[in-house]
Amino acid sequence: MAVAVREKIGTLRDKKNVDSLVQQLHAQANIPIRIMESCGMQTMSTSRHGLRPLLPETLQLISGPNCPVCVTSGAHIDAFVSLSYDSGVRVMTFGDLYRVPGTYGSLAQAASLGAKVEIVYSPMDALERAKENPDELIVFLGVGFAATIPAVAVTIQAAKKQQIENFTVFSAHKRMIPALSHLFENDSLQIDGLLCPGHVSVILGAGAYQGLVDKFHVSCAVSGYEPVDILHSLIRIVRQHAVGIASVENCYKRVVSWEGNTEAQGVINEVFVPTDTTWRGLGLVPESGLAIKPEYAKYDAVERLGIVLPEVADHSICLCGEILKGKNVPPDCLLFGRACTPAAPVGPCMVSSEGSCAAYFRYGGQER
Predict the structure, then answer these.
(1) According to the model, what pLDDT value does residue 368 have?
(2) pTM of the model
(3) Residue 6 domain boundaries
(4) Could you report how far apart the first and last alpha carbons of the chain are, in Å?
Protein backbone atom coordinates (compact mmCIF):
# COMPACT_ATOMS: atom_id res chain seq x y z
CA MET A 1 0.00 0.00 0.00
CA ALA A 2 2.78 2.46 0.94
CA VAL A 3 4.60 1.75 -2.32
CA ALA A 4 1.40 2.30 -4.33
CA VAL A 5 0.79 5.61 -2.58
CA ARG A 6 4.34 6.79 -3.27
CA GLU A 7 4.00 5.81 -6.93
CA LYS A 8 0.72 7.71 -7.20
CA ILE A 9 2.21 10.82 -5.61
CA GLY A 10 5.22 10.52 -7.89
CA THR A 11 2.92 10.56 -10.91
CA LEU A 12 1.14 13.64 -9.59
CA ARG A 13 4.50 15.43 -9.22
CA ASP A 14 6.21 14.08 -12.32
CA LYS A 15 8.00 16.83 -14.25
CA LYS A 16 6.88 15.54 -17.66
CA ASN A 17 3.26 15.52 -16.54
CA VAL A 18 3.62 19.00 -15.07
CA ASP A 19 5.34 20.37 -18.19
CA SER A 20 2.63 18.92 -20.42
CA LEU A 21 -0.14 20.50 -18.37
CA VAL A 22 1.65 23.85 -18.24
CA GLN A 23 1.86 23.82 -22.04
CA GLN A 24 -1.85 23.05 -22.27
CA LEU A 25 -2.64 25.86 -19.86
CA HIS A 26 -0.60 28.37 -21.87
CA ALA A 27 -2.27 27.24 -25.10
CA GLN A 28 -5.77 27.69 -23.70
CA ALA A 29 -5.48 30.76 -21.45
CA ASN A 30 -5.95 33.26 -24.25
CA ILE A 31 -8.03 35.81 -22.34
CA PRO A 32 -7.45 37.33 -18.87
CA ILE A 33 -8.82 35.28 -16.01
CA ARG A 34 -8.71 35.67 -12.23
CA ILE A 35 -8.91 32.47 -10.21
CA MET A 36 -9.20 32.33 -6.43
CA GLU A 37 -7.71 29.58 -4.28
CA SER A 38 -10.20 28.64 -1.57
CA CYS A 39 -7.85 26.42 0.42
CA GLY A 40 -4.65 27.44 2.15
CA MET A 41 -3.07 24.09 1.33
CA GLN A 42 -3.49 24.91 -2.36
CA THR A 43 -1.65 28.19 -1.79
CA MET A 44 1.12 26.38 0.07
CA SER A 45 1.41 23.64 -2.55
CA THR A 46 1.41 26.09 -5.45
CA SER A 47 4.25 27.95 -3.76
CA ARG A 48 6.22 24.92 -2.61
CA HIS A 49 6.20 23.31 -6.05
CA GLY A 50 7.02 26.54 -7.86
CA LEU A 51 3.90 26.58 -10.00
CA ARG A 52 3.05 30.26 -9.85
CA PRO A 53 5.90 31.49 -12.10
CA LEU A 54 4.93 28.82 -14.65
CA LEU A 55 1.41 30.15 -15.13
CA PRO A 56 0.42 32.18 -18.21
CA GLU A 57 0.54 35.96 -17.91
CA THR A 58 -3.19 36.02 -18.59
CA LEU A 59 -3.96 33.94 -15.50
CA GLN A 60 -3.92 35.60 -12.10
CA LEU A 61 -4.07 33.19 -9.18
CA ILE A 62 -5.04 34.90 -5.94
CA SER A 63 -5.65 33.83 -2.36
CA GLY A 64 -9.02 34.05 -0.70
CA PRO A 65 -10.49 33.41 2.76
CA ASN A 66 -8.88 30.01 2.61
CA CYS A 67 -7.05 29.52 5.91
CA PRO A 68 -9.18 28.81 9.02
CA VAL A 69 -6.64 30.26 11.43
CA CYS A 70 -6.09 33.33 9.26
CA VAL A 71 -9.79 34.17 8.96
CA THR A 72 -10.34 33.89 12.73
CA SER A 73 -11.16 37.42 13.80
CA GLY A 74 -9.08 39.55 16.12
CA ALA A 75 -12.03 39.58 18.52
CA HIS A 76 -11.92 35.80 18.78
CA ILE A 77 -8.14 35.77 19.26
CA ASP A 78 -8.41 38.32 22.07
CA ALA A 79 -11.22 36.32 23.68
CA PHE A 80 -9.12 33.15 23.51
CA VAL A 81 -6.14 34.85 25.13
CA SER A 82 -8.27 36.50 27.81
CA LEU A 83 -9.93 33.19 28.62
CA SER A 84 -6.56 31.50 29.09
CA TYR A 85 -5.84 33.72 32.10
CA ASP A 86 -8.96 32.46 33.94
CA SER A 87 -7.60 30.52 36.90
CA GLY A 88 -10.23 27.80 36.66
CA VAL A 89 -9.78 27.15 32.94
CA ARG A 90 -7.32 25.13 30.89
CA VAL A 91 -7.34 26.07 27.19
CA MET A 92 -6.65 23.39 24.60
CA THR A 93 -5.78 24.36 21.03
CA PHE A 94 -4.36 23.16 17.76
CA GLY A 95 -0.78 24.28 17.15
CA ASP A 96 -1.44 26.74 14.30
CA LEU A 97 -3.49 28.95 16.60
CA TYR A 98 -0.90 29.00 19.40
CA ARG A 99 1.26 31.84 18.06
CA VAL A 100 -1.37 34.03 16.38
CA PRO A 101 -0.95 37.53 17.86
CA GLY A 102 -3.86 39.43 19.34
CA THR A 103 -4.11 42.85 20.91
CA TYR A 104 -2.57 41.58 24.13
CA GLY A 105 -0.27 38.92 22.78
CA SER A 106 -0.74 35.32 21.71
CA LEU A 107 -1.70 32.14 23.51
CA ALA A 108 1.98 31.21 23.46
CA GLN A 109 2.87 34.43 25.27
CA ALA A 110 0.03 33.87 27.73
CA ALA A 111 1.39 30.39 28.45
CA SER A 112 4.84 31.85 29.09
CA LEU A 113 3.23 34.08 31.72
CA GLY A 114 1.58 31.20 33.50
CA ALA A 115 -1.71 30.75 31.66
CA LYS A 116 -2.81 27.15 31.25
CA VAL A 117 -2.65 26.57 27.51
CA GLU A 118 -1.86 23.26 25.85
CA ILE A 119 -1.50 22.12 22.25
CA VAL A 120 -3.46 19.01 21.29
CA TYR A 121 -3.73 17.05 18.07
CA SER A 122 -7.45 16.28 18.25
CA PRO A 123 -10.50 17.38 20.27
CA MET A 124 -10.60 13.88 21.78
CA ASP A 125 -7.22 14.65 23.39
CA ALA A 126 -8.90 17.59 25.11
CA LEU A 127 -11.72 15.35 26.30
CA GLU A 128 -9.19 12.92 27.78
CA ARG A 129 -7.55 15.85 29.55
CA ALA A 130 -10.93 16.72 31.06
CA LYS A 131 -11.28 13.20 32.40
CA GLU A 132 -7.83 13.39 33.96
CA ASN A 133 -8.48 16.80 35.58
CA PRO A 134 -12.05 16.85 36.91
CA ASP A 135 -11.39 20.01 38.95
CA GLU A 136 -10.54 22.09 35.87
CA LEU A 137 -12.82 23.37 33.13
CA ILE A 138 -11.32 22.33 29.80
CA VAL A 139 -12.04 24.67 26.90
CA PHE A 140 -11.19 23.40 23.44
CA LEU A 141 -10.85 26.19 20.88
CA GLY A 142 -12.90 25.12 17.88
CA VAL A 143 -11.35 26.76 14.82
CA GLY A 144 -11.68 25.27 11.36
CA PHE A 145 -13.75 24.50 8.29
CA ALA A 146 -15.86 21.44 7.46
CA ALA A 147 -12.90 19.07 7.30
CA THR A 148 -12.26 19.28 11.06
CA ILE A 149 -15.71 20.13 12.41
CA PRO A 150 -17.11 16.55 12.45
CA ALA A 151 -14.41 15.46 14.89
CA VAL A 152 -15.41 18.28 17.25
CA ALA A 153 -19.09 17.35 16.96
CA VAL A 154 -18.33 13.69 17.73
CA THR A 155 -16.26 14.74 20.75
CA ILE A 156 -19.13 16.85 22.13
CA GLN A 157 -21.46 13.89 21.66
CA ALA A 158 -18.96 11.66 23.47
CA ALA A 159 -18.71 14.13 26.36
CA LYS A 160 -22.48 14.09 26.73
CA LYS A 161 -22.70 10.32 26.53
CA GLN A 162 -19.93 9.87 29.09
CA GLN A 163 -21.28 12.70 31.26
CA ILE A 164 -17.97 14.57 31.27
CA GLU A 165 -19.20 17.92 32.53
CA ASN A 166 -15.90 19.80 32.70
CA PHE A 167 -15.34 19.72 28.92
CA THR A 168 -16.46 22.60 26.70
CA VAL A 169 -15.87 23.95 23.19
CA PHE A 170 -15.44 27.59 22.23
CA SER A 171 -16.86 27.38 18.71
CA ALA A 172 -15.29 29.76 16.21
CA HIS A 173 -15.86 27.36 13.32
CA LYS A 174 -16.46 28.78 9.87
CA ARG A 175 -18.70 27.82 6.92
CA MET A 176 -16.91 28.56 3.67
CA ILE A 177 -19.80 28.73 1.19
CA PRO A 178 -21.60 31.67 2.91
CA ALA A 179 -18.28 33.53 3.17
CA LEU A 180 -17.49 33.08 -0.51
CA SER A 181 -21.01 34.17 -1.42
CA HIS A 182 -20.62 37.25 0.78
CA LEU A 183 -17.29 38.07 -0.85
CA PHE A 184 -18.59 37.68 -4.40
CA GLU A 185 -21.77 39.63 -3.64
CA ASN A 186 -20.45 42.54 -1.60
CA ASP A 187 -17.00 43.09 -3.02
CA SER A 188 -15.83 44.79 -6.22
CA LEU A 189 -13.26 42.04 -6.70
CA GLN A 190 -13.79 40.29 -10.05
CA ILE A 191 -13.45 36.52 -9.72
CA ASP A 192 -13.84 34.35 -12.81
CA GLY A 193 -12.98 30.97 -11.33
CA LEU A 194 -12.68 29.17 -8.03
CA LEU A 195 -10.32 26.37 -7.02
CA CYS A 196 -12.60 24.60 -4.56
CA PRO A 197 -10.93 22.98 -1.52
CA GLY A 198 -10.30 19.24 -1.60
CA HIS A 199 -10.47 18.42 2.10
CA VAL A 200 -13.54 20.55 2.79
CA SER A 201 -15.23 19.04 -0.26
CA VAL A 202 -14.74 15.52 1.09
CA ILE A 203 -17.34 16.50 3.68
CA LEU A 204 -19.50 18.99 1.76
CA GLY A 205 -19.37 17.31 -1.64
CA ALA A 206 -18.68 18.92 -5.01
CA GLY A 207 -22.36 19.79 -5.30
CA ALA A 208 -22.02 22.32 -2.47
CA TYR A 209 -20.62 24.88 -4.93
CA GLN A 210 -23.49 24.71 -7.41
CA GLY A 211 -25.20 27.65 -5.69
CA LEU A 212 -22.14 29.85 -6.33
CA VAL A 213 -22.17 28.84 -9.99
CA ASP A 214 -25.88 29.58 -10.34
CA LYS A 215 -25.78 32.92 -8.56
CA PHE A 216 -22.44 34.38 -9.62
CA HIS A 217 -21.58 32.50 -12.83
CA VAL A 218 -18.18 31.59 -11.42
CA SER A 219 -16.43 28.55 -12.86
CA CYS A 220 -15.55 26.00 -10.19
CA ALA A 221 -13.20 23.02 -10.03
CA VAL A 222 -12.71 20.88 -6.93
CA SER A 223 -8.97 20.37 -6.71
CA GLY A 224 -6.47 18.22 -4.87
CA TYR A 225 -3.11 19.49 -3.69
CA GLU A 226 -0.44 17.94 -5.89
CA PRO A 227 0.94 19.92 -8.88
CA VAL A 228 -0.91 17.79 -11.46
CA ASP A 229 -4.15 18.17 -9.46
CA ILE A 230 -3.89 21.94 -9.38
CA LEU A 231 -2.84 22.38 -13.02
CA HIS A 232 -5.55 20.02 -14.23
CA SER A 233 -8.16 21.99 -12.27
CA LEU A 234 -6.88 25.32 -13.60
CA ILE A 235 -7.19 24.00 -17.17
CA ARG A 236 -10.80 22.99 -16.53
CA ILE A 237 -11.63 26.46 -15.20
CA VAL A 238 -9.84 28.18 -18.11
CA ARG A 239 -11.78 26.06 -20.61
CA GLN A 240 -15.08 27.02 -19.03
CA HIS A 241 -14.18 30.69 -18.97
CA ALA A 242 -13.03 30.66 -22.60
CA VAL A 243 -16.45 29.56 -23.85
CA GLY A 244 -18.44 31.62 -21.36
CA ILE A 245 -19.90 28.82 -19.26
CA ALA A 246 -19.80 28.11 -15.55
CA SER A 247 -20.19 24.74 -13.85
CA VAL A 248 -18.76 22.64 -11.04
CA GLU A 249 -16.17 20.11 -12.19
CA ASN A 250 -14.93 17.53 -9.72
CA CYS A 251 -11.23 17.08 -10.51
CA TYR A 252 -10.58 15.24 -7.24
CA LYS A 253 -12.85 12.25 -7.72
CA ARG A 254 -10.45 9.86 -6.02
CA VAL A 255 -11.60 11.28 -2.67
CA VAL A 256 -14.52 13.68 -3.34
CA SER A 257 -18.06 12.71 -4.35
CA TRP A 258 -20.87 14.96 -5.54
CA GLU A 259 -22.94 14.55 -2.35
CA GLY A 260 -20.03 14.43 0.11
CA ASN A 261 -19.88 12.55 3.39
CA THR A 262 -23.52 12.57 4.44
CA GLU A 263 -22.78 10.86 7.76
CA ALA A 264 -20.32 13.60 8.72
CA GLN A 265 -22.80 16.24 7.57
CA GLY A 266 -25.40 14.64 9.82
CA VAL A 267 -23.12 14.75 12.85
CA ILE A 268 -22.41 18.45 12.25
CA ASN A 269 -26.11 19.22 11.91
CA GLU A 270 -26.88 17.26 15.07
CA VAL A 271 -24.55 19.33 17.25
CA PHE A 272 -24.24 22.72 15.52
CA VAL A 273 -26.53 25.32 14.01
CA PRO A 274 -25.50 28.11 11.56
CA THR A 275 -24.96 31.53 13.11
CA ASP A 276 -23.63 34.94 12.11
CA THR A 277 -19.94 35.37 12.82
CA THR A 278 -17.03 37.68 12.06
CA TRP A 279 -14.18 36.91 9.69
CA ARG A 280 -10.87 38.69 9.49
CA GLY A 281 -11.06 40.94 6.44
CA LEU A 282 -14.70 40.17 5.65
CA GLY A 283 -16.35 41.42 8.84
CA LEU A 284 -19.69 40.01 9.95
CA VAL A 285 -20.97 37.35 7.54
CA PRO A 286 -24.52 36.01 8.03
CA GLU A 287 -24.80 32.31 8.89
CA SER A 288 -21.11 31.71 8.19
CA GLY A 289 -20.34 30.32 11.63
CA LEU A 290 -21.52 27.43 13.76
CA ALA A 291 -22.96 27.70 17.26
CA ILE A 292 -23.52 24.75 19.55
CA LYS A 293 -27.18 23.77 19.78
CA PRO A 294 -29.11 24.32 23.04
CA GLU A 295 -29.31 20.55 23.58
CA TYR A 296 -25.54 20.63 24.09
CA ALA A 297 -25.37 23.97 25.94
CA LYS A 298 -23.48 22.38 28.83
CA TYR A 299 -20.55 21.90 26.44
CA ASP A 300 -20.69 25.38 24.96
CA ALA A 301 -17.96 27.54 26.50
CA VAL A 302 -19.53 30.76 25.16
CA GLU A 303 -22.88 29.97 26.79
CA ARG A 304 -21.48 28.48 29.96
CA LEU A 305 -18.97 31.25 30.69
CA GLY A 306 -20.99 34.14 29.30
CA ILE A 307 -18.24 35.09 26.86
CA VAL A 308 -18.78 38.33 24.95
CA LEU A 309 -16.47 39.10 22.05
CA PRO A 310 -14.62 42.41 22.44
CA GLU A 311 -14.54 45.14 19.83
CA VAL A 312 -11.23 44.81 18.00
CA ALA A 313 -9.98 46.88 15.07
CA ASP A 314 -7.79 45.31 12.40
CA HIS A 315 -4.09 46.17 12.48
CA SER A 316 -3.60 49.51 10.77
CA ILE A 317 -0.70 48.34 8.56
CA CYS A 318 -0.95 44.54 8.31
CA LEU A 319 -2.71 43.56 5.07
CA CYS A 320 -3.76 40.07 6.14
CA GLY A 321 -7.44 40.97 5.83
CA GLU A 322 -6.98 42.40 2.33
CA ILE A 323 -4.97 39.34 1.27
CA LEU A 324 -7.80 37.09 2.47
CA LYS A 325 -10.17 39.04 0.21
CA GLY A 326 -7.87 38.63 -2.78
CA LYS A 327 -7.20 42.36 -3.03
CA ASN A 328 -3.50 42.15 -2.25
CA VAL A 329 -0.64 39.68 -2.33
CA PRO A 330 1.78 39.34 0.62
CA PRO A 331 4.66 41.40 -0.87
CA ASP A 332 2.26 44.37 -1.07
CA CYS A 333 2.36 44.63 2.71
CA LEU A 334 4.96 47.01 4.13
CA LEU A 335 5.55 44.62 7.02
CA PHE A 336 6.13 41.50 4.92
CA GLY A 337 9.59 40.03 5.47
CA ARG A 338 10.62 43.03 7.54
CA ALA A 339 8.70 43.57 10.77
CA CYS A 340 6.58 40.48 10.02
CA THR A 341 8.32 37.10 9.66
CA PRO A 342 7.47 33.56 10.81
CA ALA A 343 9.76 34.09 13.80
CA ALA A 344 8.00 37.34 14.76
CA PRO A 345 4.59 37.40 13.02
CA VAL A 346 2.36 40.45 13.06
CA GLY A 347 -0.65 38.80 11.43
CA PRO A 348 -2.03 35.25 11.24
CA CYS A 349 -1.29 34.96 7.50
CA MET A 350 2.39 34.69 8.49
CA VAL A 351 1.74 32.22 11.33
CA SER A 352 -0.42 29.47 9.93
CA SER A 353 1.00 26.56 7.95
CA GLU A 354 -1.72 27.40 5.41
CA GLY A 355 -1.18 31.17 5.44
CA SER A 356 -0.43 33.02 2.20
CA CYS A 357 2.28 35.16 3.77
CA ALA A 358 3.99 32.11 5.26
CA ALA A 359 3.94 30.43 1.84
CA TYR A 360 5.36 33.46 0.05
CA PHE A 361 8.02 34.02 2.73
CA ARG A 362 9.12 30.40 2.89
CA TYR A 363 9.33 29.66 -0.81
CA GLY A 364 9.82 33.09 -2.42
CA GLY A 365 9.86 33.77 -6.14
CA GLN A 366 6.12 34.07 -6.36
CA GLU A 367 5.90 37.13 -8.53
CA ARG A 368 6.37 36.88 -12.28
Answers:
(1) 45
(2) 0.92
(3) 1-368
(4) 39
